[in-house]
């Protein structure tokens, strides 16, 4: 049996999948199996996968699209290794990822998972150093030192410092928390890490940049944003923290998500639900200028409110993530 199971869920990414797969095949640590889980792709994914003649690769192809979380779950359920990692089909591992993370778990039997830092790469697959540093600062990775993470709830829920795609887990600890909740589809990585923290598991941080996370424009459609916000709101509403300060933050974060979701629903044309969520958010956060603006926009004709939302996006300052996503590939 292989020691490590690596799962790459994929859907219609035949152009990007080789970058992810080859990053696994070029690992300095070789005792692994690679499960490519195809969620009913309609592009050339099967032909792309057929190019690799490596007995460590297992191709799980679903005849129809079963959705993101269920596709991920299929790889987890088929995995045979003691250690497990899942990362997306547009990302990659650096050559020493497995060698260094396996060494941590082997040397620390009480540690349930080890998370590394990661590079930000643009749509062309180029590393963006400034964006990488900005990302580490935004999520507090620059404040984490190497070793066992002292307050895992703070890092996973409050700071959201950790990332599943750059983390090697003991599969047993994932079995204990039931890995992926289908209701968290789109937000399952955040949910998994928080539930591990609530369950009292132990995490370890390795500050080396051992993974590459790709940012590109396809990640940010209005439909995807609404789906993500609904999933994350489900997650926050399902948690309860014994520490009063963290529980207050949970309530406030949930209200902030309601406000964000309300604005996107108003933009989409789901006006009644958007107004209702704004009212619920205001009961916790108070009535902000942002909420007032959203309410005003909800009374405009849909065509005009969409123009207003797009105008706002054009004039506001773009953060590092938006700047990276604007980089064009050579194709």
Automatic annotation (TrEMBL):
Gene3D superfamilies named in the record: Spore Coat Polysaccharide Biosynthesis Protein SpsA, Chain A (3.90.550.10)
* Record domain Glycosyltransferase 2-like: where: 5-123
Give the residue spans that cross the bilayer: none
Q: What is this protein called?
A: Glycosyltransferase family 2 protein
Natural source organism: Trichocoleus desertorum GB2-A4
Lineage here is: Bacteria, Bacillati, Cyanobacteriota, Cyanophyceae, Leptolyngbyales
């Amino acid at each position: 049996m292989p020691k490590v199971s690596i799962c790459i869920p994929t859907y219609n990414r035949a152009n990007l999948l080789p970058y992810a797969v080859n990053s696994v095949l070029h690992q300095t640590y070789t005792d692994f199996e690679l499960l490519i889980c195809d969620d009913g792709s309609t592009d050339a994914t099967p032909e792309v996968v057929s190019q690799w003649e490596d007995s460590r690769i297992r191709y799980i192809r679903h005849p129809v699209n079963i959705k993101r979380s269920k596709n991920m779950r299929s790889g987890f359920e088929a995995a045979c290794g003691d250690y497990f990692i899942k990362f997306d089909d547009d990302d990659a591992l650096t050559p020493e990822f497995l060698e260094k993370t396996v060494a941590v778990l082997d040397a620390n039997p009480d540690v349930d998972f080890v998370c590394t830092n990661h590079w930000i790469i643009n749509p062309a697959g180029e590393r963006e150093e400034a964006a990488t540093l900005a990302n580490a600062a935004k999520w507090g990775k620059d404040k984490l030192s190497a070793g066992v993470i002292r307050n895992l709830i703070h890092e996973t829920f409050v700071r959201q410092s950790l990332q599943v795609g750059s983390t090697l887990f003991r599969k047993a600890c994932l079995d204990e928390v039931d890995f992926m909740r289908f209701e968290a589809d789109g937000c399952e990585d955040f949910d998994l890490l928080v539930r591990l923290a609530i369950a009292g598991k132990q995490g370890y941080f390795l500050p080396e940049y051992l993974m590459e996370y790709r940012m590109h424009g396809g990640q940010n459609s209005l439909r995807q944003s609404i789906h993500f916000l609904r999933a994350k709101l489900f997650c926050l509403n399902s948690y309860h923290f014994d520490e009063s300060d963290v529980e207050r933050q949970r309530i406030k974060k949930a209200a902030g998500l309601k406000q964000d979701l309300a604005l996107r629903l108003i933009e989409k044309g789901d006006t009644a639900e958007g107004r209702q969520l704004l009212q619920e958010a205001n009961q916790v956060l108070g009535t902000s200028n942002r909420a007032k603006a959203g309410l005003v926009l909800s009374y405009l004709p849909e065509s005009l409110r969409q123009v207003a939302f797009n105008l706002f996006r054009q004039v506001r300052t773009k953060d590092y993530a938006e700047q990276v996503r604007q980089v064009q590939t050579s194709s």
